[in-house]
Specification:
The chain is an all-alpha fold. The chain is built from 3 helices and no strands.
């Protein structure tokens, strides 16, 4: 298992990567149909909320210790999975 610092660094890097991916996916959607753009924009709004929540969890992870760290990390893992699935959903929609 990764150390606390490694985990936080990994999460920060992934958030930066996701920000870039979402921007690129939105750009791709602009050339699609109105329905596709609407679908992508709705999903992006959800992803943005999840990323915002994940960034808050990241701040709490930096400040936490012991059991609190473990609980917050578990919450962050759920958000991580949700954001990852959201981006995958957008990628799939753009391939249709």
């Amino acid at each position: 298992m990764a150390t606390r610092e490694e985990y936080i660094d990994k999460l920060e890097k992934q958030l930066r990567d996701w920000n870039s991916q979402v921007d690129k996916l939105q750009e791709q959607a602009r050339s699609g149909s109105e329905e596709l753009r609407k679908r992508v924009n709705e999903r992006v709004e959800t992803i943005n909320e999840q990323r915002s929540n994940l960034e808050k969890k990241l701040g709490k992870l930096r400040e936490s210790s012991g059991d609190a760290y473990e609980t917050i990390r578990d919450d962050a893992e759920v958000l991580w999975k949700d954001v990852k699935e959201g981006i995958s959903d957008i990628q799939s929609a753009l391939k249709e």
